[in-house]
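re: ur question from earlier - yeah i can do the single chain one, its not a big deal. heres the input i used so u can compare w yours
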Amino acid sequence: MTRSPNPTITDKQSNVIPFLPTGSFYFTYGIQAFKKRRFDTAVKWLKKAIELSPDEPLYPCQLSVVYTEVGSYHAANQLLSEVVITYGEEYVDCYYLMANNYAHLGLLNDAKKYAEKYMDQAKDGDFEEAASQLLQMLDSLEEEEADEDYAFEDEDELLIYQETAFYHLENEEWEEAIPVLHEMMKLFPEFTLAKHQYAYALFQSGSEEEAIELENQWITADTKDIHSHVNLAAFYLLSKQEEKAFAHIEPLRNVFPLHEQQKLAIAEVLTRAGYYQEAVERFSGLKNKLVIGRRGYYKWFSIASYQTGKPSQALQLWEKGCKQFPHLSEEGGPWNHQ
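and the output i got, formated as tokens:
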């Protein structure tokens, strides 16, 4: 007696329905990865979503947000520009997102233009409050620049002081830097960075209590002073007072300033505090050549890179730093810093 094929298996095989993922499927995965701060994965899924659903403008808009988060502001604005060209006023939120990216790039005129365009065209938009705050900040920066032009009439003298202080600070010549910075504080009181550099030099030269006391006085007068938060965070970390340090670090994790010097300062202190991935993202977003060429940039970016599993990049950064600042080689390498 011959056996017939198993009907159960045949039925199952004939009822198999192939799974064909859609753009929406990949978009959902992209959003999940973004929320977990797995940005490379988010970019991969969102690009796949765009490939499968090229006529869905929400997908490139979300990809632009990921690019903004990792500091790829030009790439973000390219996507947003394409959405605006194709869909126009239907996606007016793009104007705010573009304004925000231009602000991060330091292109303040473009930032103001697109923020104003958003305010003109958006009716009770989701970003109305944020756009208003951005415009206020841009106006404030314009006023500060005007005030600085007025305050620093003897700009050549200020530059000489700045360059002298910068040289001593970069070479960790704290005793030499202190009198120069002290003189700057007297001659140019509006140049507030000098007082924070003075406090940092004091701390490094051994006057730790005095440096902490000064910064606490200044932060009491201005609780939002980024450099005070950065200095106090560094001082308390170096003094093994972690709880006090993190009271200043936590606010900094949510601050994304426009000035490159402040961006670098936050990236450095995040590395000191062990937030290596966040620090790498901050360092990667730096554009100004003067900031990128500093000793702290090479040292702390190298350490953060090493701690996030990028030893080749870490070594490359460390070697570049040692070429410009030979004393850095005495610290051994990024693997000596935990």
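The radius of gyration is 26 Å. not sure if urs matches, ping me
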